[in-house]
Specification:
Number of strands: 0
Helix content: 40-55%
Distance between the termini: 56 Å
Oligomer: single chain
Number of helices: 2
Structural class: mainly alpha
Strand content: under 5%
Order of helices and strands: HH
Number of domains: 1
Largest sheet: none
């Protein structure tokens, strides 16, 4: 109800990685590989197929993030050297 209490009676601090711009981490790959192994061990076609599809999706999204903006070039020019608040440029 009140959350977990850590050592010394304080709640553990949550860590936010401000340098990371994605929710993906290597833990997802490990989790999917474990699920694939479990699916193969217990002979569950659904679990194996679901984990394999997630693994393929991870691979495709990683590849897309590397290739999608390859060769993209963007240049912007303004008509004025400087502008002040309220001016139309």
């Amino acid at each position: 109800m009140f959350g977990r209490i850590g050592p010394l009676g304080r709640r553990p601090q949550r860590f936010v990685d401000t340098q990371k711009d994605t929710q993906f981490s290597d833990v997802w790959v490990v989790l999917v590989l474990i699920l694939t192994g479990i699916g193969l061990l217990i002979d569950s076609a659904f679990l194996t197929a679901a984990a394999t599809l997630i693994l393929v999706g991870i691979g495709f999204s990683w590849l897309w993030s590397r290739v999608s903006f390859a060769g993209l070039f963007y240049r912007r020019h303004f008509s004025e050297i400087r502008a002040f608040t309220g001016e139309n440029v």
